[in-house]
Amino acid sequence: MTDWSIYLTPNEAQRRLGLFCLGVGEQVNEARRSPERALGCHAAVLVRRGRGQLLYGADRRLHEVDGPAVLWLFPGVLHGYRPTTVWHQAWVLFGGPAADALTDLGHLDPTHPVRRYADPRPVERTFGKLLRAARSGAPEVQLVAALYELAGHSDPATGDVVDRLRALAPRSLTIPAYAAELGLTVEELREAVRLSAGSTPQEVILTTRLNVAKSLLAETDLPVAAIAREIGYDDPAYFSRLFTARVGQPPRTFRRIGSPRAPISSFRRRPGAGAV
């Protein structure tokens, strides 16, 4: 592998995308310590092959690195590489307000700077997209899409937990009961959802219910009260208040104007109405 790098200067419009790429590259690190420093932006470093440690944080804690692994570095945080073998790595520098949102959602975690994946191939493919896009001078939006994709990678096992939780969401259960249905403790459920969805079990359940409600409102003639019961709410008034607070419009308004599709009955000709 030949060392190479490209540094980018996004313009004002590109920065408004929320996330922007500042540089990418590939290099080989020899088995020797790197100088300790703090970056002025975020970075993700894919260690394809190699072992060693990452020194990270004001407490200079050492985190074990055994490639393939991704090092997630935050701006202003001291770090240093401690390879015990040669590291073959790729890297990307990025910034933007969306990085803060990704952190709030748990996709970027300053307490876990070294992340290993049960199946690293999707992460490696995403890094490949970034490298090819940067070297070919592709539009900034392609780099941004790959950055979001990179941040969104999770362990398939935790993703399976979230999928199963979504399937259970219409059932009116407590969080301990959901965890029991999935064969997990409450803490295991919370950690799996945090790692995969960057969220909480409560939020996954709520958004799943609202998504199903939107589909039923847009594509069926079911009354709002029936839809509320379908997704786990016995009180239609409470469901309507919740839907309005989260969606920004009441269920009946969403049915009328909030979706490009409307129930079949919405297209039935009214008495005296002419053809469009």
Q: How would you summarize what this structure contains?
A:
The chain is built from eleven helices and ten strands. The chain is of the alpha+beta class. The chain folds into two domains: 4-152, Jelly Rolls (Sandwich), CATH 2.60.120; 157-258, Orthogonal Bundle (Arc Repressor Mutant, subunit A), CATH 1.10.10.60.
Give a written overview of the molecule.
This protein has 276 residues and is an alpha+beta fold. It has helices at 12-15, 97-104, 121-136, 140-152, 156-168, 175-181, 186-197, 201-219, 224-230, 236-247, 251-258; strands at 4-7, 20-29, 37-38, 42-49, 51-56, 61-66, 69-73, 78-83, 87-95, 114-115. It has a six-stranded antiparallel beta sheet with strand order 1-2-9-4-7-10.
CATH superfamily of the largest domain: Regulatory protein AraC
Helix content: 40-55%
What about the largest sheet? 6 strands, antiparallel
Low-confidence stretches: 265-276
Order of strands across the widest beta sheet? 1-2-9-4-7-10
CATH topology heading of the largest domain: Jelly Rolls
Derived structural class: alpha+beta
Strand content range:
15-25%
Rg over alpha carbons: 24 Å
What is the count of distinct domains? 2
Determine the number of helices (DSSP H or I, runs of at least 4 residues). 11
Rounded average pLDDT: 89
Q: Which term fits the overall shape?
A: elongated
In CATH terms, what is the architecture of the largest domain?
Sandwich
Query: Care to count the β-strands?
Result: 10
User: For this structure, what is the CATH class of the largest domain?
Assistant: Mainly Beta
**Terminal residue distance:** 64 Å
Sequence of secondary-structure elements: EHEEEEEEEEHEHHHHHHHHH
